[in-house]
Amino acid sequence: MRIKTISSREVYRNPWTSVREDVIERANGKRGIYGVVDKDPACIVIPLEVTAEGEFVYLIEQFRYTVGARHWELPQGGWEVAEVEPEDLARGELREETGLMAERMTLLSTLQIAYGVMNQKHYVFLAEGLTMGEPEPDAEESDLVVKRVGVRDFEEMILDGTIVDNCSVAAWGLYRLWRERR
């Protein structure tokens, strides 16, 4: 079933997002309105550290204005540019938010974030061979908290509702499937 776009107009724009309203015609001939949020590509990074003591991931906690609360999640974000090398983006976001640099970056997949309303791609990377440097947060990330947690504790945070970010949960599930099949 295809939906035909009859007309499209931008109703809002800022440096991070634009919103458009499309008049559409469905396969059954009925017309309607569809709101679409346009955003440039983003990435999410799974910073995995394996030591003699076990496996660990690095999380960030930040205030998310849209829900009015602080939440734990995997490092993620975008640069507000349409053309970007996914690995450069992932390395940059990882360094910016955590200070970590990765020896190896593996692209696990490209997902869509909330494609019922938004057309943003989300590159999912596994970062390994980590070394610590200085974080370089942007203005909205000045209050980030970085935390190293054991994988079992991280998974418990997902199961008990401490981590509610669907992108972090999806990225971790993707990683677990990828690892299982290697």
UniProtKB/TrEMBL annotation:
InterPro entries: NUDIX_hydrolase-like_dom_sf, NUDIX_hydrolase_dom. It holds the Pfam family NUDIX. Gene3D superfamilies: Nucleoside Triphosphate Pyrophosphohydrolase. Residues 38-171 form the Nudix hydrolase domain. GO terms for biological process: nucleoside phosphate metabolic process; ribose phosphate metabolic process. It catalyses: GDP-alpha-D-mannose + H2O = alpha-D-mannose 1-phosphate + GMP + 2 H(+). CDD domains: NUDIX_ADPRase_Ndx2. GO terms for molecular function: hydrolase activity. Keywords: Hydrolase. Its cofactor is Mg(2+). Belongs to the Nudix hydrolase family. NudK subfamily. This is GDP-mannose pyrophosphatase.
